[in-house]
Amino acid sequence: MCEKQENSQAHVAKSPWLDWAIELQFIAQAGLTYSKEDFDRERFERVREIAAEILSLQSGLPLEHVKTLFCNETGFQTPKLDTRADIFQEDKILLVQEKSGQWALPGGWVDVIPLRLIAVQDRNKHNLPRESRNNTK
User: Fold this and answer.
1) CB neighbour burial string for 48-86, b if at least 16 within 10 angstroms, e if fewer
2) I want to staple 28 with a disulfide (CB 3.0 to 4.6 A). Which of 4, 34, 37, 48 is the partner?
């Protein structure tokens, strides 16, 4: 990485610009997700562009590169967590075929629900072999 790019990245990390750009991008993405009117969608597209322009200017990265990394998400912005399960029956394992045609363990996206415990499993009573951690949340 060139010295100019390292210095600009250090500058971005120490300034509030990155936080502002991320917040503007979040507001724009939520607005694009829930807005029905073309006028509102155009405004939120512009807010997203401004966020990318801020990040490009402050980081020294080309605007198109920033847009590729920063503006390609759709839907409401949440942490992206995926879960999978190993399901065995005798000498067989359950697999599902993904839309891409590849085979995978069954699973999917997890909805994050803060401050709420979904399930607790005592591994000593339900799973063999025993593990150093007995509870799974």
Assistant:
1) bbebbebbbebbebeeeebbeebbeeeeeeeeeeeeeee
2) 48
Beta-ladder partners of 81: 110
Sign of CA dihedral 7, 9, 11, 14: negative
49, two tokens? 């562009």
Structure confidence at residue 62 (pLDDT): 93
pLDDT, tens digit (0-9, with 9 covering 90-100), for 90-116 = 999 999 998 889 999 998 877 766 655
CA angle 27, 114, 134 (to 5 degrees): 145
The phi and psi torsions of 104 (rounded to 5 degrees) equal: -150, 170
pLDDT at 120 over 60: no
Q: Are 117 and 107 in contact (CB under 8 A)?
A: no
Residue 75 zone, left/alpha/beta (φ > 0; ψ -120 to 50; rest): left
Closest CA to 54 of 3, 11, 116: 11
Residue keyed to tokens 């966020």: 51
pTM of model > 0.85: no
